[in-house]
Design a protein that fits this description.
0% strand, 8 helices, mainly alpha
């Protein structure tokens, strides 16, 4: 168990490092000249720093058997996670007019990406909290939520150095992590695949990708974006 908690802390720390590295050139390198960004962007960043600090600290606290502090910090997520989701929706709302002026099609794609990430993050977090007494499921969906958080930064990081491979990395990474664990548990631990929480996360990710492709093409979504632009004009 101690080794697993150590690995979890390392995994979450690596995810945080990759995520923040992805936003270095587009955000951190511009410091202190950050006036071009919406105020909610800074709030959004602060909330995600808090999220990463929380998920890194939790397995360390378990490893050190500080369970009371672990539970107290866990309760912070009851407020932190909803604020994260709200900040994503506000960012999407604020960015639509600017992106729409440049390209209505790209605006639709960017907006649905943010909305779907917020929804999947919420689903993973709710499952993790409902299953908090089932350690395997709890950890699986905390990992799932954190993979959703990772993707924007990962895409930017890979995209900066390798162009369109950034999109490929965003698509593949959640599958690579979740299905690798599924295979490991099947082969090494003899656990049934169909009842595996990581397989369920992979299914959720597949649903997000399908909606990401389908929704921007619909008249409903195009009209919704037009209305958002009209309201803010």
């Amino acid at each position: 168990m101690e080794n697993k908690n150590r690995l979890l802390a390392i995994l979450f720390a690596a995810v945080a490092a990759i995520s923040f590295s992805g936003f270095y050139h587009s955000y951190f390198a511009l410091f202190p000249n950050l006036g071009r960004f919406y105020f909610v962007t800074h709030i959004h960043l602060f909330l995600f720093v808090c999220w990463f600090a929380l998920v890194i600290a939790q397995p360390i606290l378990i490893r050190k058997r500080k369970m009371v502090l672990h539970r107290r910090l866990g309760r912070i997520s009851y407020f932190l996670a909803p604020l994260l989701v709200i900040s994503i929706f506000v960012l999407v709302w604020n960015s639509v007019p600017k992106n729409y002026a440049l390209s209505p099609e790209q605006a639709g794609i960017i907006a649905i990406g943010g909305v779907l990430d917020a929804i999947l993050f919420s689903v993973c977090y709710v499952i993790a909290m409902v299953k908090k007494k089932n350690l395997r499921w709890h950890v699986a969906f905390i990992i799932g939520a954190t993979l959703v958080v990772l993707n924007p930064g990962l895409g930017r990081l890979i995209g900066y150095y390798a162009g369109e491979f950034g999109i490929l990395a965003m698509v593949v990474t959640p599958y690579l992590v979740s299905l690798s664990i599924v295979i490991y548990e099947k082969v090494k631990l003899k656990r049934p695949m169909l009842k595996n929480p990581y397989l369920l996360f992979a299914l959720f990710w597949t649903c997000e990708l399908a909606l990401f492709i389908i929704v921007p093409q619909t008249d409903f979504w195009k009209e919704l974006l037009q209305n958002v632009v009209a309201i803010q004009s």
